[in-house]
Design goal:
heterodimer; A: 279 residues; MetI-like fold; 10 helices; elongated; disordered N terminus; disordered C terminus
Amino acid sequence: MKRLSRAGVPQQVPLVLVASAIVLAALTLIALVAPWIMPHDPGEFISNDVFAAPTRNALLGTDYLGRDLLSRLIASAPLTLGMAFAATMLAHVVGDSLGLYAALRGGWVDAVVSRMVDVILSLPKIIVGLVVLAALGPSVAVIIGICAVVYAAGVFRVARALGNDIVRQDYIVVAQARGEGLGWLLFAEILPQVAAPLASDFAIRMSFAVLFISSLSFLGLGVQPPMADWGGLVRENLDGLQAGSLAAIYPAAAIAITSIALNLLVDSLSERSIQGPAT
Amino acid sequence: MSAPLLDIRGLSIVSEGSGRVIIDNISLSLERGEVLALIGASGSGKTTLALTALGHLRPGLRHRAGAVDLDGENMMEADQAHLRELRGRKVAYVAQSAAAAFNPRMRLEDQVVELDRLSGRESEARAILKARSTFDELGLPRPTELGHRFPHEVSGGQLQRFMIAMGLQQSPPLLVCDEPTSALDVTTQVEVLHILKEAIRNHHTAALFVSHDLAVVAQIATRIAVLRGGQLVEVGPTEQILFAPTQPYTRELIASSRGFNAGSIVSRTRSPETRALLSVRGVKVSYDKPGKGQPVNIALHEASFELQRGEVVAFIGESGSGKSTLARAVAGLHAPFAGKVLLDGRELAGSILDRDKADRHRIQIVFQSADTSLNPRHTVGRTLRRVLDFFGDVPPTERSDRIRELLAMVQLPAAYVSRRPNQLSGGEKQRVNLARALAAQPDVLICDEITSALDNLVAASILQLVDSLRETLGLGVVFVSHDLAAVAQLADQVMVLKNGKVVEQGSTASVLARPVHAYTRLLKASVPELRTTWLTEAASEQATLRDALSPERSPA
């Protein structure tokens, strides 16, 4: 496929793909260099006015305690994106391994794991998250953990379906007949075939995770002060809306932009692979 | 009849992406009532050319020059709405795989008359009556009842006949048949071919008949066009192409469709070894879940044979005969519920999972579909190296040399180590599959229909390769095939299977030259021969043999 597209007419790179990739790259960069680009310390009170309008000193104005909103927004980027990334990563490691394993083994192993996954999928995510956080206490590790478990179930379904198509192929039978171990079968024979669809699932799943974690924080059971993620920033500045401040809108917009960019990236990538020459 | 029915003039078609020429300036014409066969290996452009008569180009192809006129209509220029109007009425299509071409959720009769209903040219009641008379004409039993069935409820041969009926429904002057019998068993192929020939004659239909099998084409075509790499090699009346070909490539094709004759049967003197390399005793296989009680659905009733080093045993039979099941049981891919498999006199565990490493590498299997038996993401080198790494018989420093040696054994250049399966042809893939099996240094090589998916010329070279490997490495070969000609060329012993039972067994010379069982005779009579009169003879011989078989013939 690569060879064909290189030899053929130059394919037009879609604008959406480039735009969403640039947005995501910028967000990642901001998250990585956050401590060095913040204009103020996120905990420092720079103004006596709460919900102050934007000034030269505070480009996005101040929050409900008179702190610089831009600095707080930047400071919470690594936490928000990092938690979502870690949770999605964990969900994929667990979901992919189990899903491909269930596809390969079939029989009762598949049946048992699949039914357990059905149970997880049937639970309302936010309520489960709230209950678990209320019981275990809100900490970054617990939030990542609960998010990973909730999304691993969906990933399992996708990986199992993809794996099911592959395990019927003769080269898997050949490898099994040779007596290959589980590790080789899963990660050398099957995984390379399903890596591309799983990667797009990763991106879309991460946008869900950003929303989920933000929702938990918005409901007050997420990241606890003085730390904050974007969901938390929306919640703490919610009162500002009545005062005519946009302080709650900026973090909400950041969440939306991240989620939309991830979705558009996956969409434009899959569109390209459909249009591309069949292999 | 002044203008030809189909007139292809200077047609060129290129691939959109790479600009590769698929059809290179071909001119052909077809008169009414004439059957023109397009023959060539895969990739010769024969299907692409045939589809242009329907005004269809596969996605990714582009029409560059020339014209295709069907009864005065320019098929290359016509828009989709007009083409829809023409298809069915002027030209119809019979596809290779009827199973994939029918909608599984619609009754057969409804699908056959669907176009009448959509076009509204004929009342539905009349269309159905017409369809039923065609069913009857095509030898479908109980046309009314069968027409009400769903596609999965009839046999492959019957489904192909429904497909032909669908093509003939609107009495088009041209029928495009794309390998209509290639997916069928040999015995069914004779029936369907015979019926198709009759139908074409009775309806005064012209046909474009695409096939890779010269012997099949010889039965039905009035003219043959030989294609190679998108170019027309030669075209002429059937007799001329078969008996006085002017081009070397045509001669090569004719030589490769060797057909079956008793003279070509191998007769090797068996080495007087006392102990068999592989010995299979009373193996029975069922696809029931293992558990309590006696299995009910038995795929293989009882099979026994002995195989010496350097010897070939062949299992022949139609699909569903249990021949592959037996091969898989020997390989340990499906454990038998009774009987034993002994290697060098030592009993092997039924399932490969219970066999130890030493036993596993001694029996290797190569599958029919070269495409699905190689991991598309692994290079040839990685595929072979993994086997060496896994079994660890070859010291790590010598593995690269061993890989080159293996490639040389299967006659592939050493540079192929870095290729991926999508950069290989079908025959080359099958060679890599053989190399992978050899990498394990087996004593027994199981070949499960390894040449079925290949073109004749390529298949012949793979057979030669297997034979030379057997000789040089002293392998015992289990050869599963439905191709009697291949079996005759290769095998010392033959086992004929039908519906999971062994009907005849013995040395190739005795079984194939003097078959005792009617079913073996039927198989033998079904191998197409390069004579234009063969089909008529075969069809009548089949009828007699089927009668002889009928008491024990299970419902199809």
